[in-house]
Structures are given as structure tokens and as C-alpha cells.
Amino acid sequence: MSLKSKMPLQIWILTVSAFAIGTAEFVIAGVLTQVAGSLGITEGQAGNLITAYALAIVVGGPILTLWLARFEKRKVLLGLMALFIAGNLIGALTANYTLLLVSRVIAGLTQGPFYGIGAVVATKLVSDKLAGQAVGQMFAGLTLANVLGVPAGTWIGNALGWNMTFLVISALGLVATVAIAIFVPAQGPDNSALSIRGQLGAFRDRNLIASLAITALGWVGFMTFYGYIAPVARLAGFSART
Questions:
Q1: Can you give the pTM of this predicted structure?
Q2: Block means of pLDDT (10 residues each) for the chain, length 242 residues?
Q3: Is residue 202 assigned to a domain?
Q4: Distance between CA atoms of residues 85 and 177, nearest Å
Q5: Which of 44, 45, 91, 193 would staple 103 via disulfide (CB 3.0–4.6 Å)?
Q6: Rounded to whole angstroms, how far apart are CA atoms 103 and 105?
Q7: b/e per residue, 137-176, with b = 16+ CB within 10 A?
Q8: For residue 124, what are the domain limits?
Q9: CATH code (residue 55)
Q10: Number of domains in the chain
């Protein structure tokens, strides 16, 4: 059976990478009160760590994705994962609020480009018939990050300290990076992705605008609450362990 006729190992590697990145994005919600107490800041200030990561995705993601499309894709993925590891290592080793904010921006810059370029890589690794399934499996890593990664990271934070949570995420990112370097084949640049005008033309579709608006509003409502789930749970009478 050929590589393109089944779901290959490389797709699972991309899934693990997406899991690590997604966990880094959301896990701060679980250790928010710990971070605030450790750094001597308010929980609202600690919530800015979520905002910094999100803004890095929103602002840096599209720009970096367009720029990085001109380079060989495996090297891009490796570079993004190296930046992701560096950002989380800074977060793991610092006790300074400003530096922690910077670390969140560094890690957040990698998420949009990795998912965008990783999805293209995933489609090239399978047959056309399995392309959608391959992308869906890769993005399942983001779903699993919420279901498994955040609770696990919160448990680690409660048991060993929030710095250890980011250290474990860095280690997971390192494993994924090594696997990408060994198993993911090189792929050329995507010259079709270089036209900014062509990509922006998609926004002429009102159905697309409506879909994006619904998604944005839904996520705003969700993250406004989810980001502060730890202090809300504490006020409701739950212990940190619970």
C-alpha cells in the first residue's frame, strides 16, 4: 500500500504538534490563579497572558503565513516549532511578568502559521480522497488539547508549579520537532499563496463573512468565560485540586 493510500505516521506527528501548541494556548486558564499569586499580580493582569497569545495569533498569524509560504515547508515547520519551544522555555524559567508576556507572544506567533502550513503539508501526504480527513485529524490535536492537554497541564501546575507546566509543553514540542525532522519529507514552497490580493478577494463572499462573524462571536463568548474559569470556580467554592 502506498504512502498516499493510507493515513501515514507523519499526520500523527502533525497532530501531536497541534496538540502541544493548542495546550500552550489554553492551559494558562487552568493555572491563572497560580500565576497571579506567584508573580504578585491580579488575576486580570494574568488574563493578559491569554490576550497576548491571542493577539499574536490574530496579528502575526496571517502575515507570517503569507511570508513563510515562499520557503520549503518542512524547514518552516521546524523553525516554527523551535520558536514555540523557545517561547515556552522562557515562560517556564521566568518569574517576571513582562518577560512572561513576551514569551506568550513568541509562542503565539507560531500557532497560525503552523496550522495553516501544516494543513497544506498534511494534504500532500495522502491521496486527494483522504485530504480532508488528514487535515481534520491534524486539527483534532487542538480539540484534544482542550479535552486532555489543559486538564493535564493544570494538574501538573497544581502538583509541581505552573512553571513545570510550560516545561512539559516545551518537552512535548521538542519531541514533535525531532519527529518532524526525521519523518516529514521536504516540500517545496507554495507560490500560489503569495498573492495577498487574491487571498483577500475571498472576503467578497458574504456567506464567508457571516460564517466568520458567527465563529468570532461564539469564541468571544466562550473565551471571555473560559479564560477566567479558575477564579470563577474558586469563587464558587471549588478548591484548586478540584
A1: 0.88
A2: 66 96 94 94 94 91 85 95 97 96 96 93 92 94 94 94 96 97 85 65 88 92 88 87 76
A3: yes
A4: 9
A5: 91
A6: 5
A7: bbbebbebbbeebbebbbebbbeeebbebbbbbbebbbeb
A8: 8-235
A9: 1.20.1250.20
A10: 1
